[in-house]
Amino acid sequence: MFFLRQQRPQGMTAAEAIAQSDEGAITVIDVREHGEVANSGKAKGAIHIPLMRLRDMADPRHPDFIAELKDCGPIAVYCASGARSHSAAMMLQQMGYDEVHNIGGLAHWVQAGGALEQG
Question: Which CATH superfamily is domain 26-113 in?
Answer without folding.
Answer: Rhodanese-like domain (3.40.250.10)
